[in-house]
Design a protein that fits this description.
17% of the residues lie in helices and 37% in strands. The protein is α/β, with parallel strands linked by helices. The protein binds FE2/S2 (inorganic) cluster.
Length: 265
Amino acid sequence: MMIQETTVLWNRMAAKGYYRLGLAISGGFDHAQPGQFVMVRVGSDNQPLLRRPFSLLGLIREEGRVSGIEILFKVVGQGTEKLAGCRKGERLSVIGPLGNAFLVPDTCRQLILVAGGVGVPPIRFLAQSLLEREGGLDRCVVFIGGRTRDDLVCISEFDLPGFLLDISTDDGSQGNPGVVTHSLEKALDAGTADLICACGPPAMLKAVAAIAMARDIDCQVSIEAMMACGMGACLGCAVRIRGDDTGYRHVCMDGPVFDARQLVW
Ligand code: FES
């Protein structure tokens, strides 16, 4: 983990209200993994004061080395609004990579990925990294959900060899009508999986965890939390853990990826 001044390579609208931001880095991300995140200082005038956490969408490679990172964000407030206005060449202070990562064990042959709304970045990064997995997978199904078709971002990037894509929208404007967890449940009624990896809104993750636990399928979830420091100092990101002495863990230090069975839902 390091703190560094990065340079904006691009800041492109990915869908209505969603942006992809590419940042040139000086180093430190060669071993960054899907699920890890960065804390970005939005603007140079310290307004807003606190850094914002963003999951890595992917790494930018040049001549065999990692020369940059990419994040995806949705404009939801003052910080992200300011970030949406960043232009190529601007400088942004970044701390990272932070947190832990999804871990797909060698024994996993059938994998399910689930992403809801702005939960796409670590799932996209994971899908891309699985292409390099030795021995590949027998099957990988990616479930992506959004409220409307405008909330489906980066879906074309899941069009990968050996991956099946299943899209849902709450309003039925694209893919299956209804929430993504209905599609997941239907698929698991017809077949099984060794592992589910998911990222998305809390209600979606809770439903995914319940579906997985009811079928005794391993499930890793990347959860969102309010993060002021990203480094275990402010205690703002605590989540309740089952059967632990203190009963709490830090999302920034112990997560953001947790075994679904660990969490108190
Ligand atoms: Fe401060 Fe986790 S964000 S302790």
